[in-house]
Automatic annotation (TrEMBL):
Coiled-coil spans in chain: none
PANTHER family per UniProt: AB HYDROLASE SUPERFAMILY PROTEIN C4A8.06C, KYNURENINE FORMAMIDASE
Domain BD-FAE-like: 39-220
Signal peptide: 1-19
Gene3D superfamilies given in the database record: alpha/beta hydrolase (3.40.50.1820)
Name of this chain's protein: Alpha/beta hydrolase
GO molecular function terms noted in the UniProt entry: hydrolase activity
Keywords: Hydrolase, Signal
Keyword Isomerase annotated: no
Organism this protein belongs to: Pedobacter lithocola
Length: 281
């Protein structure tokens, strides 16, 4: 009975939000015909023309996931006044992490150059990622080579990392159990420890200057519970604006799936973060 009530409430919320939010689907951001290089945009077409924009990079162990899964995230944020872009990127085994990161940087470039057509400002770009998507978002933010490849300066105002996996891939792959996940990750990061270091955002932390909002679950994977606070401490030591919140009782997937509900507390934290740092030039 309770489950049915929750589903009815979610459907009702979706119908209300859908009536006010427009969607532009399957836009290619890389100048090719690849589905892996497409994005969806969720926005309200109103008189406000300089809204902030949130780019969301999905998780899925670098080998699964797609933008369509997160339509509810796009609609919820757009309904709250934040234009939201949900992107695809190439996945393993067809691509390794550098190709994924390069293409995520291209998506950010496309948004910077085109998002004014969807009532948002290219000067108010925020990037949010969950799990592997948080890794890729922080990697392009911290290692300057990716935006250099894209031909732009880093335009990201702030990073929102939701249960980020792989902030230190070298540490994880050096110590992890040799299970199916481990061998799956090798398709993305090779079996070379020197590559694992190059793929670790924490190795570039001194390059990071923009604001950060970090979430991690109280019941998530051990590597996330170790490395997310470590990123927080390093950013804080470098006097980078950073906030961190442990979400009690949440494991890895529920850290993002809880946001299906537009009244989830994470929205309040994220919206306050975006509003605060949108005003800083």
């Amino acid at each position: 009975m309770l489950k049915n009530l929750v589903l009815i409430m979610l459907l009702f919320q979706t119908i209300i939000s859908s009536a006010q939010v427009k969607t532009a689907k399957d836009i290619n951001y890389a100048g090719n015909a690849e589905v892996a290089n497409t994005l969806n945009i969720f926005y309200k077409k109103d008189d406000i023309k300089d809204k902030p924009v949130l780019i969301f990079i999905h998780g899925g162990s670098w080998s699964s996931g797609k933008k369509e899964t997160y339509w509810w995230l796009g609609r919820n944020f757009a309904h709250k006044g934040v234009v939201t872009v949900i992107i695809n990127y190439p996945l393993a085994p067809n691509a390794q992490y550098e190709k994924m990161a390069d293409d995520c940087a291209l998506a950010v470039k496309w948004v910077q150059e085109n998002i004014s057509n969807y009532t948002a400002s290219g000067n108010k770009i925020f990037v949010m990622g969950h799990s592997a998507g948080a890794h890729l978002g922080e990697l392009i933010n911290a290692d300057p080579k990716y935006f250099k490849h894209a031909g732009i300066e880093n335009p990201i105002k702030g990073m929102i990392l939701n249960d980020p996996f792989g902030l230190d891939m070298h540490e994880y792959l050096t110590t992890a159990e040799k299970d199916d996940f481990y061998f799956d990750f090798l398709r993305t990061f090779t079996d070379k420890p020197e590559v694992w270091k190059l793929a670790s955002p924490l190795d570039y932390v001194n390059n990071i200057k923009n604001s950060h909002l970090l979430f991690y679950g109280g019941k998530t994977y051990g590597a996330i519970r170790i490395q997310t606070p470590r990123l927080y401490e390093k950013l804080k030591a470098n006097k980078v604006p950073v906030e961190i919140k442990e979400i009690k009782g949440k494991s890895h997937v529920p850290m993002i799936s809880q946001m299906i509900f537009g009244g989830n507390d994470l929205y309040k934290d994220i919206l306050e973060f975006i509003e605060k740092f949108s005003k800083i030039r």
